[in-house]
Specification:
Length: about 450
C-alpha cells in the first residue's frame, strides 16, 4: 500500500500545480480589475494546499522506495516542502497574497525543474534533438518485427575494429542513450543501476541481469527481444527502442564473456549479424504467400466501425492484421463485421481478452499468426486450432495452457514458432514438446515451470 501511494506521486503532483497557478492568476486579476473573487480564491487555495500536502507525502514515500539516490532527491524534496508551505501561507495570510504568489510561482518552477531532472535526466530541458534513425535501422519492439528479416547498413560489418575497450566504445553509449534514464545514479527502477561495472554485475531486485557467455539467460539482452507490450520488455513501451544493430552489439558482447576493460577486437560483427542473432534465438516462420486479392476498402471500413483495428500484414501485399484491443465485447456482432475480409486476415491479436470464442477463428482459413497473450485460451481450445492449415506462429504467453495441450500443439504441422513462457507448462512438458517437435522454435522467455502432468506426458511418449 505504501509503495502504491509513492508511485502515485507523478499523478498527484499535477493537481496542486494546476490549482495553485489558477489561484495565483485570480489573485492578480482581482487586484488589477478590482473584482471581488476572494471566496473562490480561498477555496482554490485550500484545495491546492491539501493537494500539495498529499503530493509531498507521496513524493516522500517514493523517495524511500529505493528507486532514487537520497542525495539526488533532497533538493527536489525540500523545494517541494517549501512550495507546500507557500501554498498554506497564501491561504492563511490574505493581506500578503500578491507577494507570496510570486514566491510560489518561483518555487513551483524550481521544484518542477528538479523533478523533471530526476525523471528525465539532467539537462533534459535543453537536450539536443535525438538522432532520427534511417529506415534500415528498424526496432525490435514487437513480435512482428522480430519475425522479419531486417537488412542492416553495411556499417555493421565492422564494429570497434580500432577500439581497445568494446564495452566503453560500443556498449556503454547504448546504455547511456536508452537505459540511464531509469537505471543510473539519478534513478534506479527495480533497484537496478547500469552506469558502472559493479552495479551491472550486481543486478537489481530480481537478481543478476548478466550471465557472461549466455545472452538468452542474461536479462540485459533477453528482455530486449520480448514483445514491446510485454511487461518485462525493455525499454518499456513508449520509450525509445534499440535498433537491430544495437541489440546485436549487446548480444555479441555477452557472448564474448561481457568484458569491461580487456583489449579485444572480437566485437566486430559480420554483415549478417541480424540473421545470426535470429537464427540462434527466434527462427522466423516461413510464411506461405497465398494467392489473395486485396480486400475491398468498404468492407475494411465496415469492420473498423465495430472498433476493430486493421492494418496491413507485413509479409503479404494483400494480407491484413486484425486487432481486437478496442472491442469492448467480443460478441457475434464483432465477428460478423469481419465476414467479408476473413480470407485476407493472416494475423489476429486477442491479447488480454477473457471472452475469446475459438470456433469463430476457424472461419479465417488463411490465418498464419495468432496472439493469445494473457487471454482465457484453454488446452481444449488448441485442438480446434489444428483445423487452421496455415497457422505458423502461436503466442500463448501468460495463458493457462498446460501439459494437457501438448498433443494438440504437436499436431499443428504448419506451426513454426511458439511463445510459451509464463504458462502452466511444466519443465518436463516443455522437454517432451521439444522432443516431439524438434523443428518448432519455442520462445521460453522468463519461464516459470509448473508441476508436470505425468499422465499427459506418458501419452505423448
Amino acid at each position: 500500500m505504501i509503495d502504491l501511494l509513492g508511485h502515485l506521486h507523478p499523478f498527484l503532483v499535477h493537481f496542486p500545480i494546476g490549482i495553485l497557478v489558477i489561484a495565483c492568476v485570480m489573485i492578480w486579476a482581482q487586484s488589477i480589475r478590482k473584482v471581488e473573487t476572494q471566496s473562490s480564491i480561498s477555496a482554490l487555495l485550500l484545495l491546492g494546499a491539501i493537494a500539495a500536502i498529499m503530493a509531498s507525502i507521496s513524493g516522500f514515500l517514493l523517495s524511500n522506495s529505493g528507486a532514487y539516490e537520497k542525495g539526488d532527491v533532497l533538493a527536489h524534496q525540500w523545494w517541494g516542502i517549501g512550495t507546500t508551505l507557500c501554498a498554506l501561507c497564501l491561504y492563511f495570510f490574505q493581506a500578503y497574497q500578491k507577494i507570496i504568489s510570486l514566491i510560489l510561482f518561483v518555487a513551483l518552477a524550481i521544484t518542477g525543474h528538479l523533478g523533471g531532472e530526476l525523471t528525465y535526466g539532467s539537462n533534459y530541458f535543453f537536450a539536443r534533438k535525438k538522432t532520427v534513425y534511417s529506415s534500415k535501422e528498424l526496432s525490435l519492439s514487437t513480435v512482428d518485427t522480430i519475425q522479419q528479416k531486417i537488412e542492416l547498413d553495411t556499417a555493421v560489418e565492422v564494429l570497434s575494429t580500432a577500439g581497445n575497450f568494446p564495452f566503453e566504445q560500443e556498449v556503454l553509449p547504448i546504455l547511456k542513450s536508452h537505459c540511464f534514464q531509469c537505471h543510473s545514479s539519478k534513478k534506479q527502477k527495480g533497484k537496478l543501476r547500469l552506469d558502472t561495472e559493479a552495479f551491472i554485475k550486481k543486478g537489481g531486485k530480481e537478481g543478476p541481469i548478466l550471465l557472461a557467455g549466455n545472452p538468452l539467460k542474461s536479462h540485459l539482452y533477453s528482455y530486449l527481444i520480448l514483445p514491446e507490450d510485454d511487461d518485462l520488455h525493455m525499454p518499456p513501451e513508449g520509450k525509445k527502442q534499440l535498433n537491430e544493430r544495437q541489440i546485436a552489439i549487446i548480444k555479441r558482447w555477452i557472448e564474448m564473456g561481457a568484458p569491461f576493460s580487456e583489449s579485444m577486437h572480437a566485437l566486430a560483427l559480420p554483415s549478417n549479424a541480424a540473421d545470426s542473432m535470429h537464427a540462434s534465438d527466434i527462427k522466423p516462420p516461413t510464411m506461405t504467400l497465398l494467392p489473395l486479392e486485396p480486400a475491398n476498402h468498404a468492407d475494411i471500413l465496415q469492420a473498423k466501425s465495430q472498433g476493430l483495428s486493421i492494418s496491413p500484414f507485413a509479409n503479404h501485399p494483400a494480407g491484413l492484421s486484425l486487432n481486437f484491443v478496442n472491442v469492448k465485447h467480443l460478441d457475434s456482432k464483432a465477428w460478423q463485421a469481419t465476414k467479408k475480409i476473413q480470407n485476407n486476415v493472416l494475423q489476429i491479436k486477442l491479447t488480454k481478452r477473457q471472452d475469446i470464442q475459438v470456433e469463430e477463428l476457424l472461419n479465417f482459413k488463411n490465418l498464419q499468426q495468432i496472439n493469445f497473450e494473457q487471454s482465457n485460451i484453454q488446452d481444449g481450445d488448441l485442438e480446434r486450432l489444428e483445423q487452421l492449415p496455415h497457422l505458423a506462429q502461436l503466442n500463448l504467453y501468460g495463458t493457462a495452457i498446460s501439459d494437457q495441450g501438448i498433443k494438440a500443439i504437436v499436431a499443428m504441422k504448419a506451426l513454426k514458432v511458439l511463445y510459451i513462457w509464463q504458462s502452466r507448462l511444466s519443465q518436463e512438458g516443455l522437454q517432451a514438446l521439444k522432443k516431439a517437435r524438434p523443428d518448432l522454435s519455442i520462445v521460453e522467455g522468463k519461464f516459470q515451470f509448473s508441476p508436470p502432468d505425468t499422465n499427459r506426458l506418458k501419452a505423448i511418449k
